[in-house]
Amino acid sequence: MSIVKLTVNGKAVSADVEDRTLLVHLLRDHLNLTGTHVGCDTSQCGACVVHIDGRAVKSCTVLAGQAAGSSVTTIEGIAKGDELHPMQAAFRDNHGLQCGYCTPGMIMSAIDIVHRHSGNLDEATVRHELEGNICRCTGYHNIVKAVLDAAGRMKVAQAAE
Amino acid sequence: MHQTTYHRPSSIDEAASLFAKGSDAKYLAGGHTLIPVMKQRLASPSDVIDLGKIKELIGVEATGDGIVVKAATTHYDVASSETVRKAIPALAYLASLIGDPAVRHRGTIGGSLANNDPAADYPAAVLALGATVKTNKRSISADDFFKGLFSTALEDGEIITAVSFPVQAKAGYAKFNHPASRFALTGVFVAKTPAGDVRVAATGASQSGVMRVGAIEAALKANWSAGAIDSVKISADGLLNDIHGTADYRANLIKVMAQRAVQAAG
């Protein structure tokens, strides 16, 4: 057992966990942040994507200890109070989710994609960049629409800041 | 996953001494092979020694006639490094094809080489570019480093610290990826040295891991063009033969990927 200290969604947290604990289980089972999902558990589906120090990663393939000292952002940490993150709002407005299981990972990956491309995205790029996120409802069309919509909104939000 | 003890050393020396103390220790870099293998209980190391946060293992440097990529540099950082893109764009391109964006944020060049998966991308670049693998004990030339399936010249406890790539006159990579895993069904890296020699390495194709392709090297040395490969015969002997592709199919892929790599190299 080790005490792992890290920042999650802006708050300093610590948990006494077995060394074999995966980050996704630290988040879900110890911090009760169940928005991050376990889909395939083989680093393929992307349902568990969170940000570590600003980069999208698959939290099922990171040991909790590897995240010690880092800043982790999960789907619970992106809205500002009652105001959804532009990516969340765009997913809602574009019907970018069906069953919703892949959605947290899709949204966390999508925010990372928009950041890496400075908001300059086209459909082909979004489809390619989402290759590590699988939607079993196969609802990709509206997911891609939502990401493109959000990229515009995030650009506007950034310009206003 | 079985129980293990996680360590995060802050230097290469500390990592090596932790390894020596563990009864069955393993180094962890990006963790994108070791953690999945531990989950499947195919590996159950007593100690996991994390190299990922050791500062001296991270970064890319330009040298006089090449670049040095330190071992714990992630695929994303190699793919987006201005230094790599300027000196060896084919290497940056190769790194951009590994896995998916989230995997590239974690996976490292040193981890990929130490694991030497027969379908991994980096071994093809290291072998074709004639790179040198630096460890905490010695320098190993690419020709001596790869020893077959998941096997390398690394000794127990030895740590890859960096890979030194010479800049070649021409270099290109093309991969036909498996649509689910993104591993190479076959990938071919071609390079032409300033002296006019040609080195061609194929990954994903052979039963014994990354390999040089002598017939294509000879054809390209005589005539550096995709067309020069048309008449080359690639034997299917010793090539992988599985549900994803027959040995004959992979033999053909070696040719086609080599042609695309030459076109990419210009």
From TrEMBL, chain A:
The keyword Transmembrane does not apply. The keyword Iron applies. Keywords: 2Fe-2S, Iron, Iron-sulfur, Metal-binding, Oxidoreductase. GO terms for molecular function: 2 iron, 2 sulfur cluster binding; metal ion binding; oxidoreductase activity. Residues 2-78 form the 2Fe-2S ferredoxin-type domain. SUPFAM superfamilies: 2Fe-2S ferredoxin-like, CO dehydrogenase ISP C-domain like. PANTHER family: OXIDOREDUCTASE WITH IRON-SULFUR SUBUNIT (PTHR44379:SF5). This is Carbon monoxide dehydrogenase. It comes from Bradyrhizobium lablabi.
UniProtKB/TrEMBL annotation, chain B:
Pfam families: FAD_binding_5. Residues 1-170 form the FAD-binding PCMH-type domain. SUPFAM superfamilies: CO dehydrogenase flavoprotein C-terminal domain-like (SSF55447), FAD-binding/transporter-associated domain-like (SSF56176). Keywords: FAD, Flavoprotein, Oxidoreductase. One of its GO terms (molecular function) is FAD binding. This is Carbon monoxide dehydrogenase.
